[in-house]
User: Fold this.
Amino acid sequence: MTEKALRLGTRRSKLAMAQSGQVARTVQQVTGRPVELVEITTYGDTSREHLAQIGGTGVFVTALRDALVRGEVDFAVHSLKDLPTAQPEGLVLAAVPLREDPRDVIVARDALKFTDLPRGARIGTGSPRRMAQLNAYARAHGLDIETVPIRGNVDTRIGYVRDGELDAVVLAAAGLSRIGRIDEVTDFLSVDTVLPAPGQGALAIECRAGNTARDTALIAALGELDDPSTRAAVTAERSLLAALEAGCSAPVGALADLLADGQVVKEMRLRGVVGTTDGTRMVQLSTTGPVPQTHDRATALGRELATEMLAQGAAGLMGERAQ
Assistant:
């Protein structure tokens, strides 16, 4: 008798389906069990409001988590940058697979680079974090840009450029890569120009905490997809976000990367930034320490940097602080 298929909960967007399909194939290989995708519509998918007004990207997560708790799906795949920092009771982050490119990218008309855009260029993004850093960079380098708030899927956003409504849009490299459209990128933004969102480029695989033998077995199986270096990095980044008391839609960027001496990884560097969306005021700091070997050490790294950023006035730059 063949084992019952595992049910993977996913949003219906093209990107979510692509990400979930990749995870499904890997889980199938690891477990030897078929995996079926269960499509779930979230409020964030149907609402026309700006994300910041409806609670940030966390709105994409709630419906998936509800389906998990109700037992309608066995596990779910999220973009890690969409996950609220507090882990709900009864659910566990079973795996954080190897991270894709965390950078932001530009898709611009006439294959232009960011620094080659014309004066007054209109750049679309739904992210206060991207707005803050792009405006700060432009201000520091004598560029004249206007950031325009937009929503929608990849097709919609790139469509604004194709139709001539915008000169460029900012997207995540990982998302375009996963849907096979990375060749449309006209410029990869250095993390020195724009720090990505905490957890950007990484996926989170979530399931019920082991209340039954079946749950425990699934946690163990999914754990084979975990990449310890990625998990340590995103734990530090998300700890910074949590300690700033900032939500997913706050103008906070963070990136933890491993510093190697030849082939030997020596340290982890964590960089954080917060700024006003007009780019006039920014707090940007970094810290370096031993590569965290435990969840608690990675969390401590993020908290320490957040404390330094708050001491320099970061709280006053985030507008409404998340409750």
Q: What stands out?
A: Confidence is low (pLDDT under 50) at residues 50-56. The radius of gyration is 20 Å.
